[in-house]
Amino acid sequence: MRLKDKVAIVTGSGRGIGEAIVMRFIEEDAKVTLCDVDENALKEVDAKLKGMGGECMIAVGDVSDPVFVKNMVDETVKTFGDLDIMINNAAITRDAILHKMSDEQWDQVMAVNLKGSFNCLKNAALHMRQQGKGTIINVSSTARYGNIGQLNYSASKGGVVAMTRTAAKELARKNITCNCISPGTIWTDMMKTIPEKILDQFRAGVPLGRFGKPREIANLCLFLASDEASYITGQTINCDGGSFPD
Hints:
The chain is α/β, with parallel strands linked by helices. 45% of the residues lie in helices and 16% in strands.
């Protein structure tokens, strides 16, 4: 078991990529705190994990709230005795073309995607610095290269990459690694609402000829969280079927 006795927090774990990461971690014997704003979704995932024999707890709340995040980290340490892995996956979209994008749409995305990642990164790092070890993985997106209609989302995900590189330099001397995963087009429930004609256009832009699976992102996350990646830090790894250059 690659994560035996390791304790992790995974934000945005009520569905999609976050749920897949949690499932993969439980398979590898980690103890996991599930975090999401959707309590019902969390309870459904929690039930699946307990059916697998997984040891987990749920934290319902908004990562843009620093008080909630601090309490979540503190409660995780109190419950499981440690915090080894922090996965910052929670994110939202509020799409609009530049000249139609409202201040509210910009602020909402920045609050969750960027400030939320900062809140989790900071509070995890505060604990990990004390114990002299830890792994932090931030989830960006290939949208950081720029997507029409996603100025706010693209900017937030570019910010996550910059934050990762800086944190990696600051935390390295405390034996804490910080890396970034950048998914391409991944087949989640959200994708299933898109017309097939549009999906075909998206698929045509992927050299491997298909969309990614949430579990494929989870597998990369597992590697970076494991001891096998102990000498990797400050990196952003695309998992996109070859769609984008570095």
